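Input C-alpha cells:
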C-alpha cells in the first residue's frame, strides 16, 4: 500500500507515526500499514501505564468508529425500509384485490361444479338403484324358478321313495305269506313222508355209511385246512411280534440316541461356553502381552536409535503387511485395537531385524545402555517362544471352536425331530372326538358377510379364516366337539353335552377378541375394533354368528369323504332348523333355542357368568325329509353372551337386513348331500336284503330238487305198500311238489321284477342326484354373482362417500381461505384508514 502523505515514514521506528491505509477482511483480521502505526501495540520506549492508556484510547476510538458506521447503516436501512414498506403496502393492496376477484370467480366456478356433481351423483344413484332393482328382480325370479324346480324334484323324489317303500313292503308281505304257506305244507308232507321213509332207511344204510365216510374225509380236510391256517396265523403273529419287538428296539435305540444327543448337546454347550470364556480370557491376556512386548520393543528401539541415529531404518514391502496375518490368529485381527498393536510389533521387529551394524562405543557406555535399555538375546528368544506358544494356543482354540460348531450343528440336526417343542405339540394336540350318536347338540358358526369379504379381499380373508379355524380347532377336543362340516365361511359342529356346547360358544367369542388379526381386516368395516363408552373392547376382527339347537336328527353311520377325511354327517329336522337359526343370527351374536337352553340350565353353575335374553318366538322354515316339503315351526330363541361382552348391541330381528349372499350355502348343501347319501345307503341295504331273499329262494329250490330226487330214488322200494295206496301217495307227492315248484318260480319271478324296479329306481335316483348337482352348481354361480354384485355395490358406496367427504373438505377449505382473505383485507383496510 502507498503512504497517506509523502515525506513521512510509516512503521514502528518512524519519527512521526502516520496511520496507514487499512482493509478489514472477512475474518476480521486487520492487514496493512496499521500494523506498524497502531498505538495499542507495545513500544519499547513506553512505560506500562502509558502503554495501557494508549491501548485503551485505541480501543475506544475503534468502538466510536464502529458505532458511527452502525448509525450510518441504520439510517440507510431505515430509509430503505420505509420506501419498501410503502411499495409493499401498495403491491399487497393491488395483489389482494386481484386475488379476491380470482377467488370469487373460483368460488362461483366451484359452486357450479358442485351443483353439476350433485346432479351427476343423483343421476348415478338413480341409475345404480335401477340396476340393483333389476338385478334383484332377476335374481328373485331365478331363485323362485330354482325353488319351484327344487320343490318339484323333491316332491318327485318323495313320491318315488314312497312308491319304492310300498313296493318293498308288498314284496315282503307276499314273500312272508308264501314262505309261511310253503313251511306249513312242508311240515305236513314231511310228517307224512317220515312214516313212509322209515322203511326205506334200511336200504339207505350203505348210502349213509358212504356219506359218513365222505363227511369224515371232508372233516379231516377241514381240520387240515384249519390247522394250516392256524399255523399260518401263528407264523404271521410271530412275524408281527418280531416286527413289534424290532420296532420297540428301534424306538428304544432312538430314545437312547436322543438322550445321548441331548447329553452331547449339553456337554458341547458347556464346552463351548468354557471355550468362549477361555478365548475371551486368552484374548485379553494376549492384548496385555502385546502391549507389554510393544512397550519394551519401543523402549529398546528408541534407546538404540538414540545411541546410533544413523542406524534408523524404515521397513517397506508386502512382507510387512503379511506378517500380522501370518503370525496372528483371525480372532485377534478382528479387533482393530489389537490389530494395530500386532502391526506395530511386526513393524518394530522388522526394524530390529534390518539393523545389522552396531556402533563401536566404549565398553562402559555400551554396558550401561545394555543394562538400561537393550534386552539380551535369551530374553528375545524367550519372548519369541512365548509368542509362538500363544499362536499355537490360539490355533488350537480355533480348531476346537470349529469342531464344537460342527458338533453342535450335527446335534441340532439330529434333535430337529426330537425337540421338546415338537413333542409338546404332538402331546398337546387336540384329540380326535368320536361322533356323538344320542342326545346330540348342534352348533352352527358362520361369518354373515364372509362371501362379500372374500370377493373384496381374498388374501386377507384366507389368512383370517385360517387363523379363526386354527384357534377353534385347538379347543374342540377339550369340549368334546365333533366337526361335521366346514368351508370358507361356515362350520357345523356336534356336541354330546349341551353345557360344553354353550361354554364353547361363549368362550369362543372371547377368544376371537384376543387373536392377532391382520391389519387389513381391522381396517375393514366388518372387522374394525369397537369399544363401549367405558373403553371396553366388544368387537375386534371377524364377527362370527353362532346358533345352538337340539332336536330330532340322524347320523350317517358310514363316513362321507370330506377334505381328505371321512366325516359322519347329520341330517334331519334339527339340522335344518339350526341352519335357519344361524341365518337369523348377527355377527358376534349367540342364539340358542329353548330346547338347547333348557339342557344347559340344568347345570347352570358350570356355565360361568352369562347374560341371557329372550328373543321371543320366531317362525323357522325348514325342509322335512319325510314329507319332502318345506314346513314352518315356531321356536323360542334366547340370546346368550358372556358378561365381559354384555355391551354388544344388535338390531331387532324384524329390522335385520337380509344379506344378498348367504354364508350358509355350503352347510345346506352338506345337509342335503348327507340325506342323499342316507337314501343311497338305504337303497344299498335294500339291495343286499333282496339278494339274501333271492339266495334263500334258490336254496329252497335246490332243497326241493334234492327232495324230489330222493323221492324218485325211493320209488322202487314202495312195493311193500299196497299198490292203490302207493299210487295215491305218489300222486299226492308229485302234485304238492309241482305246486311248490310253481310257487317258487312265481316268487323268483317277483323277485326279479322287484330287482328290475330297483334298478329303475336307482337310475331315477341317479338322475335326481345329477339334477341336484346341476342345481348346486347353478346356486354356486348365483352366489358368486351376488357376492360380486354386493362387493361392487359396497365399493361404489365407498367411492361415493369418499367423493362426498372430499367435496365437503374442499368446500370447507375454500370457505376458510375466503374468510382468511377477507380478514387480511379488513386488516389492510384498517391500516390504510389509520394512516
Amino acid at each position: 500500500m502507498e503512504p497517506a502523505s509523502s515525506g513521512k515514514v510509516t512503521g514502528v521506528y518512524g519519527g512521526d507515526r502516520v496511520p496507514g491505509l487499512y482493509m478489514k477482511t472477512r475474518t476480521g483480521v486487520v492487514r496493512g500499514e496499521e500494523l506498524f502505526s497502531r498505538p495499542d501495540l507495545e513500544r519499547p520506549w513506553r512505560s506500562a501505564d502509558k502503554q495501557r492508556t494508549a491501548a485503551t484510547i485505541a480501543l475506544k476510538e475503534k468502538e466510536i468508529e464502529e458505532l458511527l458506521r452502525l448509525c450510518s447503516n441504520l439510517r440507510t436501512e431505515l430509509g430503505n425500509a420505509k420506501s419498501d414498506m410503502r411499495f409493499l403496502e401498495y403491491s399487497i393492496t393491488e395483489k389482494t384485490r386481484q386475488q379476491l376477484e380470482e377467488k370469487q370467480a373460483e368460488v362461483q366456478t366451484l359452486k357450479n361444479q358442485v351443483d353439476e356433481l350433485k346432479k351427476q351423483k343423483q343421476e348415478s344413484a338413480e341409475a345404480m338403484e335401477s340396476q340393483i332393482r333389476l338385478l334383484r328382480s332377476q335374481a328373485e325370479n331365478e331363485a323362485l324358478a330354482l325353488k319351484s324346480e327344487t320343490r318339484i324334484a323333491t316332491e318327485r323324489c318323495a313320491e318315488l321313495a314312497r312308491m319304492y317303500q310300498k313296493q318293498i313292503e308288498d314284496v315282503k308281505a307276499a314273500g312272508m305269506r308264501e314262505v309261511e304257506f310253503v313251511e306249513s305244507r312242508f311240515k305236513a308232507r314231511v310228517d307224512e313222508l317220515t312214516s313212509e321213509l322209515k322203511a326205506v332207511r334200511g336200504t339207505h344204510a350203505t348210502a349213509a355209511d358212504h356219506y359218513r365216510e365222505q363227511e369224515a374225509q371232508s372233516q379231516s380236510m377241514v381240520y387240515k385246512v384249519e390247522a394250516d391256517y392256524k399255523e399260518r396265523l401263528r407264523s404271521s403273529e410271530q412275524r408281527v411280534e418280531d416286527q413289534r419287538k424290532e420296532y420297540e428296539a428301534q424306538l428304544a435305540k432312538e430314545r437312547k440316541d436322543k438322550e445321548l444327543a441331548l447329553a452331547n448337546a449339553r456337554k458341547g454347550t458347556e464346552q463351548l461356553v468354557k471355550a468362549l470364556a477361555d478365548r475371551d480370557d486368552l484374548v485379553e491376556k494376549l492384548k496385555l502381552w502385546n502391549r507389554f512386548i510393544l512397550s519394551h520393543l519401543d523402549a529398546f528401539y528408541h534407546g538404540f536409535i538414540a545411541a546410533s541415529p544413523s542406524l534408523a531404518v524404515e521397513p517397506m514391502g508386502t512382507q510387512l503387511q503379511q506378517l500380522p496375518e501370518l503370525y496372528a490368529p483371525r480372532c485377534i485381527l478382528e479387533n482393530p485395537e489389537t490389530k494395530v498393536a500386532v502391526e506395530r510389533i511386526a513393524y518394530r521387529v522388522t526394524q530390529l531385524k534390518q539393523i545389522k551394524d552396531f556402533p563401536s562405543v566404549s565398553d562402559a557406555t555400551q554396558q550401561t545402555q545394555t543394562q538400561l535399555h537393550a534386552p539380551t538375546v535369551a530374553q528375545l528368544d524367550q519372548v519369541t517362544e512365548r509368542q509362538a506358544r500363544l499362536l499355537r494356543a490360539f490355533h488350537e482354540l480355533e480348531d476346537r471352536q470349529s469342531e464344537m460348531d460342527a458338533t453342535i450343528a450335527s446335534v441340532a440336526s439330529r434333535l430337529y425331530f426330537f425337540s421338546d417343542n415338537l413333542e409338546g405339540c404332538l402331546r398337546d394336540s387336540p384329540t380326535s372326538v368320536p361322533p356323538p350318536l344320542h342326545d346330540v347338540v348342534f352348533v352352527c358358526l358362520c361369518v354373515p358377510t364372509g362371501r362379500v369379504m372374500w370377493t373384496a379381499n381374498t388374501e386377507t380373508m384366507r389368512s383370517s379364516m385360517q387363523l379363526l379355524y386354527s384357534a377353534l380347532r385347538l379347543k374342540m377336543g377339550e369340549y368334546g366337539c365333533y366337526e361335521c362340516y366346514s368351508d370358507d365361511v361356515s362350520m357345523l359342529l356336534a356336541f354330546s353335552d349341551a353345557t360344553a356346547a354353550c361354554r364353547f360358544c361363549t368362550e369362543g367369542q372371547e377368544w376371537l377378541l384376543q387373536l392377532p388379526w391382520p391389519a387389513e381386516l381391522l381396517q375393514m368395516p366388518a372387522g374394525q375394533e369397537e369399544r363401549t363408552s367405558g373403553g371396553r373392547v366388544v368387537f375386534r376382527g371377524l364377527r362370527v354368528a353362532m346358533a345352538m339347537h337340539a332336536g330330532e336328527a340322524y347320523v350317517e353311520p358310514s363316513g362321507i369323504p370330506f377334505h381328505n377325511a371321512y366325516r359322519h354327517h347329520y341330517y334331519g329336522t334339527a339340522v335344518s332348523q339350526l341352519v335357519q337359526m344361524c341365518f337369523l343370527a348377527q355377527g358376534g351374536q349367540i342364539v340358542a333355542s329353548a330346547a338347547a337352553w333348557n339342557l344347559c340350565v340344568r347345570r347352570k353353575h358350570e356355565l360361568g357368568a352369562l347374560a341371557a335374553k329372550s328373543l321371543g318366538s320366531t317362525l323357522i322354515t325348514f325342509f322335512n325329509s319325510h314329507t319332502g316339503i318345506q314346513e314352518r315351526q315356531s321356536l323360542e330363541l334366547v340370546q346368550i353372551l358372556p358378561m365381559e361382552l354384555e355391551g354388544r348391541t344388535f338390531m331387532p330381528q324384524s329390522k335385520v337386513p337380509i344379506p344378498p349372499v348367504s354364508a350358509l350355502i355350503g352347510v345346506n348343501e352338506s345337509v342335503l348331500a348327507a340325506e342323499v347319501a342316507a337314501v343311497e345307503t338305504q337303497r344299498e341295504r335294500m339291495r343286499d336284503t333282496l339278494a339274501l331273499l333271492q339266495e334263500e329262494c334258490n336254496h329252497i329250490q335246490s332243497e326241493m330238487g334234492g327232495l324230489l330226487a330222493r323221492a324218485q330214488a325211493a320209488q322202487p322200494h314202495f312195493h311193500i305198500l299196497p299198490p292203490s295206496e302207493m299210487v295215491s301217495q305218489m300222486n299226492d307227492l308229485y302234485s304238492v311238489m309241482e305246486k311248490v315248484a310253481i310257487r317258487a318260480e312265481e316268487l323268483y319271478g317277483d323277485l326279479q321284477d322287484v330287482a328290475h324296479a330297483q334298478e329303475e329306481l336307482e337310475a331315477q335316483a341317479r338322475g335326481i342326484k345329477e339334477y341336484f348337482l346341476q342345481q348346486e352348481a347353478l346356486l354356486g354361480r348365483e352366489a358368486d354373482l351376488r357376492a360380486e354384485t354386493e362387493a361392487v355395490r359396497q365399493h361404489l358406496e365407498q367411492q361415493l362417500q369418499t367423493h362426498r367427504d372430499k367435496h365437503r373438505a374442499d368446500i370447507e377449505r375454500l370457505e376458510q381461505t375466503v374468510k382468511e382473505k377477507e380478514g387480511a383485507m379488513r386488516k389492510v383496510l384498517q391500516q390504510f384508514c389509520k394512516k
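Confidence is low (pLDDT under 50) at residues 1-36, 357-374, 411-428. Residues 680-834 form one domain.
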